[in-house]
Write a structure and sequence with these properties.
This protein has one domain: Growth Hormone, Chain: A (Up-down Bundle). It is about 80% helix and about 0% strand. It contains 5 helices and no strands. The protein is elongated and about 55 Å long. The model has no long low-confidence stretch (mean pLDDT about 85).
Length: about 130
């Protein structure tokens, strides 16, 4: 078991459900992202991006102060909702700012900057099996 995960399990318990910390985030992001564009059209991209960032902060606080693993999983789900909003609105902002001629380069660069971090969460949860 990963040392960080061992400390987390020793602190808040939940040895059988600790993998849900990562999954709750991914599922909430996947459930929120398809609607983020429509929400941004209704309320404006600026406000949706700010609300998304605020929700991520609230979710991090909930996860950080959790005394039980169920609360930490809920906090990570809150983080996923905020990330789903912010991710789509951020991509829309890059498209809106970039000139049409080089929009593909800007979008490719933005997503390549994010790409290496996508595997971090999966790598951390796969260490539970070791």
């Amino acid at each position: 078991m990963n040392l960080t995960v061992a400390y987390t399990v020793g602190d808040i318990g939940g040895e059988k459900s600790i993998a849900w910390l990562g999954m709750a985030n991914n599922l909430a992001t996947a459930a929120t992202a398809p609607f983020a564009g429509a929400i941004a059209d209704l309320f404006g991209r600026r406000y949706v991006a700010l609300v998304g960032a605020g929700v991520v902060i609230i979710g991090c606080i909930v996860t950080g102060v959790a005394q039980r693993v169920e609360i930490a999983i809920g906090g990570m789900a809150i983080v996923g909702v905020g990330a789903g909003l912010a991710e789509v609105v951020g991509a829309a902002a890059v498209v809106e700012i970039a000139p049409v001629k080089s929009r593909g380069k800007y979008m490719g660069t933005a997503f390549l900057a994010i790409l290496p971090f996508g595997a971090c969460q999966v790598y951390g949860t796969s260490l539970l099996e070791i």
